[in-house]
Structure formats: C-alpha cells, structure tokens
Write a structure and sequence with these properties.
This protein is an alpha/beta fold and 269 residues long. It is built from seven helices and 14 strands. The protein has helices spanning 11-19, 102-112, 122-132, 158-164, 198-202, 217-229, 244-256, and strands at 2-4, 26-30, 38-41, 47-50, 56-59, 65-70, 76-78, 86-91, 117-120, 145-151, 170-176, 206-214, 235-241, 265-268. The strands form two sheets. An eleven-stranded parallel sheet has the order 1-2-4-6-8-9-10-11-12-13-14. Strands 3-5-7 form a three-stranded parallel sheet. The longest helix is centred in the last third of the chain and has 13 residues, at 217-229. The chain is elongated and about 65 Å long. The two termini are 35 Å apart.
C-alpha cells in the first residue's frame, strides 16, 4: 500500500485502513501529516517507508525493514516487538545546523546498534561524524551489512565508520561527485587509517565500490588498501566509470596490486 498526500479529518481513518488490511506486507506513507503520530498496527507488515513529514508508532512483530527520512526530530517509534533487521535512514540537512538535537542523534545511534543491515546517506553519517568527534567511537556490534553514500571529500570519515563496525561482512560504498565542485576540479580526497580496522582482519568478505565519475588517485588508494589489508575478503566489485583510453591503464594497475586474501575475486563492471 502506497499512500501519498492522504487527507482526512484526523489520523483515525488512516489507522483503520492500515489495521483493516489483513495481509499487508509493504507500506509507504508520504506527506501523511497529522497532529498525532499514526498508529501502525499490523501482524503481517514486513516493510515500512516514511518521509520526514510523517510520524508513526509501529506495532508490527514481523517488521523486517524500516526506511525513513527525518529532519531535526525522530519521526518513528517501535513498540511491542523487536527492532527490524534493516534500517535505511536519511537525516536530511541536519548536519547544516550548528547544534543539532543530541538526544535524537543518541537515539538513532542506539537504533543502529540493534540492526544487522544499514543503509545511510552522506548527510546521516556526517551528523554522526560531527557528533562523535569529541566522544568515543560508537560501536555497532550487530551490523554485518552496510551501504553508505559519500561525496568524494567525505572519505576522510570512512576510517571512523569502519572502526565502529567490528563484525562487518559486506560493505557497499557509493562515491558521489560533490555538486559544488566545478567540472575541472580534481583535488584528491584523503583517507588516513591510523590502524587496520578490526572488521578488515576478522570479518569483511565483500566490498563494492561505486563511482559515478572517473576514479581519482585517492580512490585508487582506497582499492589498494582493501586488497592489501582485508584478510577474509572474497569479492571486490568495482562499478566504476572510465573512458576507453584510461581503462587499460586502470586494469594494469589493478592487477599489480598486492592482495592479502589469496581467494579474493575482483570484478570490474
């Protein structure tokens, strides 16, 4: 069920529609804004997707995945059930505020520490990174799968992120071009690891790197780093953009890179 811009005198009508759908598994609520949070009660619901204008209280024992956008305040609460295995969260523009709500950030970090599969935007991790600069690194000990999007010059945050994910098995990293950059700019991103994160040594098996622009040398260093230090790595997938002229040189350099894992398979798409 996909509900968008639904209007009614109050949230009760919408709640009855949801609870009256006995086989509902997938629910999307966009711009369904009421004074009170919508009570989502379902014994069959597995996936829910909400935007920053929609507030919900979820009672769904079979829930597997929660996708949410939020702005300044937390817009969901889960009751009477375990937390879903997957969380996809986008904290829209909160990093632009000099003093974001620390209570909200702590709550979200606690929620992330409970999930096994996480998808986060660049904005979300930027908020966490700034919040953690003067605090101990938060540990996400249950997290095994991570999909994260960075701008090129946010890669400096990657070491902190990997140090937080001590049991990570799968990493998908999408590197985006910063829209504020001019086309001709080619400043190199800097990724500095003080030590090899624990997950690279003990658990990381799959890495996918997606680049929408030609890779810079800094990103090539990132590929080299994963190959050199990932003891358990089974597959490295590179979904990268290259001109025909540059691809041959890229593949030559890639083949020559040392690999810590003798069984690692490298795929170039």
């Amino acid at each position: 069920m996909h509900l968008e811009n639904v209007t009614s005198p109050n949230e009760t009508t919408l709640q009855k529609l949801i609870s009256g759908s006995p086989v509902l598994e997938d629910l999307k609520l966009i711009r369904c804004s009421y004074q009170k949070a919508i009570q989502v009660r379902s014994h069959t619901l597995k996936r829910i997707d909400i935007d920053e204008r929609t507030k919900v209280v979820i009672d769904a024992p079979l829930l597997q995945c929660l996708l949410t956008e939020m702005f300044l305040t937390k817009n969901y609460q889960i009751v009477n059930s375990g937390f879903p295995a997957k969380l996809d969260i986008d904290m829209r523009s909160m990093h632009l505020y000099p003093r974001p709500n620390e209570g909200v950030i702590r709550d979200i970090l606690t929620d992330i520490s409970r999930v096994r599969d996480l998808v986060i935007s660049r904005n979300t991790w930027k908020v966490f990174f700034l919040y953690s600069e003067s605090r101990p690194v938060h540990q996400f000990r249950n997290l095994s799968r991570l999909n994260v999007r960075f701008y090129i010059f946010d890669l400096e945050m990657l070491p902190t992120l990997l140090e937080s994910c001590t049991k990570l098995e799968s990493l998908t990293l999408e590197i985006l071009k910063d829209p504020s950059m001019h086309h001709e700019e080619k400043r190199e991103p800097s990724v500095m690891f003080a030590a090899v994160p624990r997950c690279l040594v003990s658990s990381l098996k799959f890495v996918e790197l997606k680049c929408s622009t030609p890779m810079y040398e800094g990103e090539m260093e990132l590929v080299r780093y994963f190959l050199k230090n990932s003891t358990m790595l089974q597959k490295l997938r590179l979904n990268v953009y290259y001109t025909k002229e540059a691809k041959c040189a890229f593949l030559t350099e890639l083949v020559a890179m040392p690999r810590c894992s003798s069984t690692c398979e490298v795929l170039v798409l």
